Amino acid sequence: MFLELSYILSEKIPNYPDSVPERFERILSQEKGDVSNTTLVYHYTHNGTHVDAPYHFDSNGWKIHEIPISYFIYENPLFLNFPKGPEEKITLKEVQNVPNVEKADLLIFRTGFGELREKDPITYRFLFPGLEVDLARFIREELENVKAIMIDFLSVDPLIEGNQKGFVVHKQLLSKETSSKRPVLIIEDVFLEPLIDQNVKRVFPLPIRFMDVDGAPVSVVAEI
Fold first, then answer.
1. Are 52 and 185 a contacting pair, CB within 8 Å?
2. Which of 16, 27, 160, 183 could form a disulfide with 54 if both were Cys (CB 3.0 to 4.6 A apart)?
3. Domain containing residue 195: CATH number
4. What is the pLDDT of residues 106-133, one digit of tens each?
5. What is the pTM of this model?
């Protein structure tokens, strides 16, 4: 059985503060006598369910069109259910002794914060959790099979701390300046509630291949 885990993009989605909102412009309309319905989409690359390419925080890193397709195919995903409150971090201690964590190629962090996306979008936008930088370092340096992490909130760096400290978790996972190891992709704002109590077999977050950009929307499909 397959589950779709991407949120639908719309002009009303809760996005990262100060990000440019989505905008859809109808160019042709059959109601107005045109031959077809055709829409122009103005998309900010970090709105909605998306992947951060290494280039997002490393000018010498992979751009979205350069990432090998193998980086988006996960045969050994590991679902980690760590409920978190506002601005609370996922810690190294919680992850490092999880059974079989060293075998995973994708770490799926479900915090439950996604439940606030519709019912409390202000909290979802401004008070989302994050990852400890020590955890990000552990993932990149010690978990050599991990190609990506996936979260059910807007950013791996909490909002205020991320801006104050220069997005250290993003850089730890993506940038060549922080490690000589392979980059670890970051897939954010994913609908993870359907995976609770499921046996997740494989996950495929397939990106749109924009040329020379720092991220892209992904259509996430999980096999259970």
1. yes
2. 183
3. 3.50.30.50
4. 999 999 999 999 999 999 999 999 999 9
5. 0.97
